[in-house]
Amino acid sequence: MELGIIGLGKMGGNMAERLRLAGHRVIGYDFNADAVKKLTDAGSVGVHSLKELDEAFTGRRAVWIMVPAGDPVDQTIAGLKPYMKPGDIFIDGGNSNYKDTQRRHDELKKEGFEFVDVGTSGGIWGITEGYSMMIGGDKEPVEYLTPIFEALAPAAHEGWGHTGPSGAGHFVKMIHNGIEYGIMQAYAEGFSIMRAKTPLDLDLVQISEIWRYGSVVRSWLLDLTADALKKNPTLEGLEAYVPDSGEGRWTVFEAIDLNVSASVITEALIRRLRSREENNFTDRMLSVMRNEFGGHAVKKS
Fold it and tell me: In the chain, N or C: fewer CB atoms in 10 Å?
């Protein structure tokens, strides 16, 4: 089976290679000529324009879009449409908002195209571990793409599934990432408490290794944490700045709209926002209030 991929960054490039190794024909396009060359050198088909992408297909076009959420997705779809034929499939494998996904599906359906949303997890490790894929869209195109999903997944019948109609894939991935925020925050706080207990002289690397086996808190995320601590046990040289790509805040908005309590995910999101505030005003306000009512000392820069 052949698949076009637009966006050959770390994740898109690794997906292309995993598909190639599984025997699928991959046609890749990226603005970065080096990324295209890397794909070609590996044995897939690298092209330098959407026209070339179109000409490289031999049958039904299925194009997997791996670009940042928002306007870049709309621009990519608009650029592709002149080269697509009725029944061809657009696939959004990025972290788009599910409401945008539903809009795109409805617009493209009216024009005779298919649109499938694939919430994709696995990051840079997907090439060896496989990708977890949460898929939304109509039944026919999802079934048509099944060989692709089976090749990308950890195993043919594991780690992926058709979760529902258009938007369901990106909605489930949004919740997945919200949960991820909470787990990461819990690990970070737990290790911070242990590091602060200096009289016990705890070895965080050792503890992370202990927890990896048999513990109820073991996880792949803990495996990655243990690896990171081995490389840099004190996290020297790193800034306490944690970005977010949107899914956590969208999860919180949905929880509010649905009247569902999601305090852990919400607090994890707030902590990420706070990490970006240099000498943040909130904490300075707390300090000055303590000074006003109790005469507590105020640290000055």
Answer: C
